[in-house]
Automatic annotation (TrEMBL):
Residues 18-193 form the Transketolase-like pyrimidine-binding domain. It holds the Pfam family Transket_pyr. It comes from the Bacteria. Gene3D superfamilies: 3.40.50.920, 3.40.50.970. It comes from Saccharopolyspora endophytica. Keywords: Oxidoreductase, Thiamine pyrophosphate. InterPro entries: THDP-binding, Transketo_C/PFOR_II, Transketolase-like_Pyr-bd, Transketolase_C. CDD domains: TPP_PYR_E1-PDHc-beta_like. The keyword Oxidoreductase applies. SUPFAM superfamilies: Thiamin diphosphate-binding fold (THDP-binding) (SSF52518), TK C-terminal domain-like (SSF52922). This is Alpha-ketoacid dehydrogenase subunit beta. Its cofactor is thiamine diphosphate.
Length: 338
């Protein structure tokens, strides 16, 4: 079920420089203003404004009945949101850290993902589950996970990830407007990176990928926190005369691989980058689909730079775990060596 076109928010239009965190806050504010049925719920989202301050000031402006501090119970948060959605509300649930989502896993995959199908379309559950995900912040265990592939595998869920303030602002509003449940993965290590946001421009469709840097030598595709890493790698490669094309996937389920196929047919090479482990992942699915659709265009196997197939390490070791500019460029070199 596609998200409808958004009405213009009452927030002032025009260009401003904002962080991803601020853009998410602005998107939530616009949705709360637009629709009185939108609710925000989660641990510390009200008075504190969230541990990353994404919901800062919203309870003060919209009240405790629309921005709700909940108990520390993810299963209860998701289950309560499902009941509210059945009654016509549009809950936005915050999972404080990625690794905390698993107590609510059963509610998400057994109830949230299935209700529309189980009721033959009679019951809609327009719920957004916001998940700060990924590493790079020096956190302790359970605070730096990348569980997106688990949810991308579940029919009935839409899974998306923003990588910049513009997408953060628009994609979150589009997810809230969508009548289907959406898992919204936010790159926490990028929360405070800045870019220009012009709220007067039209957004891209929610479930679409896009080329963020044109090139001709190798296609490099990523999502969430790794998009910035790939753009930095492309800048470094350009100093050596190598022209990388970077694709931001944006939607992980359903995947929009049209721009990826088109790019690979031009470059003949594809490198996929993610923080998540490589086995049974979003990147492995994309590799399979590209091999199927672009076989005669490929000049090299589809290669990947990902996290390792191990539990996320202690913070002192995460720099070696996460793909960085050098690892991306090393895989690009391997692709060009074929």
């Amino acid at each position: 079920m596609a998200a409808p076109a958004l009405e213009r928010p009452t927030t002032p239009s025009g260009t401003q420089t904002v962080t991803i965190a601020k853009a998410l806050n602005m998107g939530l504010r616009a949705s709360l203003e637009r629709d009185p049925k939108v609710l925000i719920m989660g641990e510390d989202v009200g008075k504190l404004g969230g541990v990353f301050r994404i919901t800062d000031g919203l309870q003060k402006d919209f009240g405790e009945h629309r921005v709700l501090d909940t108990p520390l119970a993810e299963s209860g948060i998701i289950g309560t949101a499902i009941g509210l959605a059945i009654r016509g509300y549009r809950p936005v649930c915050e999972i404080q850290f990625d690794g905390f989502i698993f107590p609510g896993f059963d509610q998400i995959i057994s109830q949230l993902a299935k209700l529309h199908y189980r009721s033959q379309g009679k019951v809609k559950v327009p719920i957004v589950v916001r998940v700060p995900f990924g590493g790079g912040i020096g956190a302790v265990e359970h605070h730096s996970e990348s569980p997106e592939s688990l949810f991308a595998h579940i029919a009935g869920l839409k899974v998306v990830s923003c990588s910049n303030p513009v997408d953060a602002y628009w994609m979150l509003q589009q997810a809230i407007e969508c009548d289907d449940p959406v898992l919204f993965f936010e790159p926490k290590r990028r929360y405070y990176e800045k870019a220009e946001l012009d709220t007067s421009l039209d957004p891209l469709p929610l479930l679409s990928s896009r080329v963020v840097r044109p090139g001709s030598a190798v296609t490099v595709a990523a999502y969430g926190p790794m998009v910035r890493t790939c753009l930095d790698a492309a800048t470094a490669a350009a100093e050596d005369g190598l022209d990388l094309e970077v694709v931001d996937l944006r939607a992980l389920s359903p995947l929009d691989l049209g721009p990826v196929f088109e790019s690979v047919r031009r470059t003949g090479r594809l490198v996929l980058v993610s923080e998540a482990p490589s086995e049974s992942s979003v990147t492995s699915e994309i590799a399979s689909r590209v091999q199927q659709e672009c076989f005669y265009s490929l000049e090299a196997p589809v290669l990947r730079a990902t996290g390792f197939d191990t539990p996320y390490p202690p913070s002192k070791l995460e720099e070696g775990f996460l793909p960085d500019l050098d690892r991306v460029l090393d895989v690009v070199d391997r692709s060009l060596a074929y």
